Amino acid sequence: MPNIQPLPGERPMWPWGAFAIALALFLLTWALCWFNANVVNEDLQNFCADLHTQSFPPEKACVAEDGTVTGANASWVTAAFFTSATLSAVLLTAALALAFVGRAGYSSGR
Questions:
Q1: In what order do the strands lie in the sheet with 51-55?
Q2: Do 11 and 102 touch, CB atoms closer than 8 A?
Q3: Peptide bond into 6 cis (omega under 30)
Q4: So what's the pLDDT on residue 6?
Q5: How far apart are CA 30 and CA 85, in angstroms?
Q6: How many angstroms separate the Cα of 23 from the Cα of each of 5, 40, 89, 101?
Q7: Residue range 68-83, pLDDT digits in tens
Q8: Distance between the two ends of the chain, CA-based, in angstroms?
Q9: What percent of the chain has pLDDT over 90?
Q10: Vertex 54, ends 42 and 85: CA angle to 5°?
Q11: What is the DSSP pairing of strand 51-55 with strand 69-70?
């Protein structure tokens, strides 16, 4: 059976890699939402009587009298936005905690 224990002085890198992936997904979904709100639906306010805007995530949506919505972000994009934001925060906290525990362990002479 191979030895999978880290060598002395080695720190686990997976939390930083996972954080980078989650952060990249967050930034990608934020860019998609911003592009949809500010480029694709730029002139929505010119012909919409009931314009709804929000800033986090960026969105401009028009609600017609019959209840149809134009210009809203796709639900999967909004879900990916909030999930990746939460996951980024959790993984950053985990990576910083592991780095702090590792540094404290190495400085105490273990």
A1: 51-55, 58-63, 69-70
A2: yes
A3: no
A4: 58
A5: 10
A6: 28, 24, 9, 23
A7: 899 999 999 999 999 9
A8: 26
A9: 51
A10: 110
A11: unpaired
Place of tokens 């925060």: 89
Q: Which two tokens stand for residue 22?
A: 């989650």
pTM for this model (two decimals): 0.78
Is residue 53 within 8 A of residue 59, CB to CB? The reply is yes
| Residue whose pair of structure tokens reads 């639900």 in the numeric block | 75
Structure tokens at 10: 């080695």
Q: Which two tokens stand for residue 8?
A: 């002395």
Q: What is the 3-state secondary structure (H, E, C) of the chain?
A: CCCCCCCCCCCCCHHHHHHHHHHHHHHHHHHHHHHHHHHHCCCHHHHCCCEEEEECCEEEEEECCCCCEECCCCHHHHHHHHHHHHHHHHHHHHHHHHHHHHHHHHHCCC
